[in-house]
Specification:
By secondary structure, the protein is an alpha+beta fold. It has a single domain, classed as Alpha-Beta Complex (Peptide Deformylase), CATH 3.90.45.10. The protein is 26% helix and 29% strand. It is built from 3 helices and 7 strands; from the N terminus they run αβββββββαα. The chain has a 5-stranded antiparallel β-sheet with strand order 1-2-3-6-7. A two-stranded antiparallel sheet has the order 4-5. β4 and β5 form a beta hairpin. The radius of gyration is 16 Å and the shape is globular. The mean pLDDT is 94. The structure holds zinc ion. The site of zinc ion has 4 residues, from α2.
């Protein structure tokens, strides 16, 4: 289990479109596990491979990571791994407050589909299909945006997006 470095805005890597995963080998499984470990440590609910410097169509999620955890409690984790995800269907609307491990110190309301059907592969390359609703659907869409090189702050109005990015870039600059 390795903790990976999470790339932060405005790192140019985050703008890359991730490539399809074609090798379903031990390295892919290891990367997915390391991403989960990293996400748990950073208290995120989702992480795309490009955020740890690997522009591949791989993402992990665990919505339980957001729940309050008492010291020493053994809340069961629910890790999910999606390889080459593709939305087959979207419907409804939901607005939630989003943040991102690659965008420090900023959250904002984003509107997305409230129900999605996703086709993906597991780390063994098997084709899977799943329906996600509510926060799970939101999280998946947020992570899938990363695969296209898009951040949640790219979904704001152009004026607001520019403003927020300017501020974040200023904060990111080393003193
Ligand atoms: Zn994110």
């Amino acid at each position: 289990m390795n903790i990976l470095q999470v790339y932060k805005f405005p790192h140019p890597l985050l703008k890359l479109k991730s490539r399809l995963v074609t090798r379903f080998d031990g390295r892919l499984k290891q990367l997915a596990q390391d991403m989960l470990t990293t996400m748990y440590k950073e208290r995120g609910v989702g992480l795309a491979a490009v955020q740890v410097g690997k522009p591949q169509r791989l993402l992990v999620m665990d919505l339980t990571n957001d729940l309050p955890r008492e010291q020493g409690s053994t809340l069961r984790r629910e890790p999910r791994i999606y390889v080459n995800p593709e939305l087959l269907h979207t419907e409804g609307e939901i607005t939630t407050r989003e943040g991102c491990l690659s965008v420090e110190g900023y959250t904002t309301d984003i509107r997305r589909a409230s129900r999605v059907i996703v086709r993906y592969q597991d780390t063994g390359g098997r084709l899977m299909k799943e329906t996600l609703e509510g926060l799970a659907a939101v999280c998946l869409q947020h992570e899938m945006d990363h695969l296209e090189g898009r951040l949640f702050i790219d979904r704001l109005s152009p004026v607001k997006s520019r403003m927020v990015k300017k501020r974040l870039s200023r904060q990111a600059r080393p003193a």
